[in-house]
Task: structure prediction
Amino acid sequence: MQMFEILGNFQIEGTIVHAEEYGYGHINKTYLVTTTTNEKFILQQINTDVFKKPSDVMYNIEAVTSHIRNKYLEANLDASRAALEIIYTKQGKAYFKYHDLYWRCYRFIEGAKTYEKITHPDQFYQVGLAVGNFQKQLSDFPINKLKITIPDFHHTPKRYEKFLDVARTDAYRRGMDVFNEIKFVFDRQNDMGAIVQGLDDKSIPYRVTHNDTKLNNIMLDEKTQKAICVIDLDTVMPGSVLFDFGDAIRIGASTALEDEEDLSKVSLDLNLFEKFSQGFLEVLKDELTYTELKYLVLSTKIITLECGMRFLTDYLDGDHYFKISKENHNLIRARTQFKLVREIEEKQEQMQKIIDNILGAA
Result:
């Protein structure tokens, strides 16, 4: 009954025929809804523990999706699947508040899907193109208009400070069992600040960044396997393009899922790293600064380490931020990320050679 009441406030025709939980997101609750008119919609409850100002989140999404869609229309291209389409409420708002909960609705993008793991290397080339195009499409967006939806989201040194506070407090008495993981982070504290320092001294420019370019946030056409659009725009904010490059590699170039328990299955696939980099740099090679190009490989280590640290912080803090579905889920995720960090450390020279070869060919 609750879902009927919520959907009744959005500008959609028909009534619900079927509704089910959808996707693998860590933060928001997501449902796929089918109506009597045979239309499909994505209904999401925005997590207000994470996003304190849902109105700011939706303001950014409205602005960015409109900007991207206009780019397609100006080029006489089909904009129907270029970006998320917000379904407004009957009062013309981008969200509906129901008993202190915030809900939003998108039109379901037909004929496209996301992946939790790459099934063919060319898919990751397409993901690289999509992330690069997202950057390029928003290169002239007035960045000062964006709201900060999560302050210091990729400020890795501040994430480290929070990690230290939680580890010292150890409110849930989990610290002794993860001494090696805590030491792993502590030993790499000097590697964390390069991107933030670059933003501070302006050697790295602020750009409109997605900040959460996981593989499953890129939609590919089911038939052609071409990239369609970038979704899950809650964390679109001013940031560094290196955040997006590093996060995409963290997930897409891994040989295992983010919560793989058997660490022997976790590796960094250099072929996939090359595929993504080819697509990404095909679009952006002439847009990026010297320092951005120089730090591409380093960004994969920083963002992977940051994500592992965030998982470990949440584990130590009682699993309040990321959704979990099994015991020690956040600890498992952290260990997977730390294995990838080791892989990057071992393969960084090969990774840099790949980047150099791509840029040289370009």
Notes: The longest strand covers residues 29-35. The two ends are 57 Å apart (CA to CA). The chain has a mean pLDDT of 94. The first helix runs from residue 2 to 7.
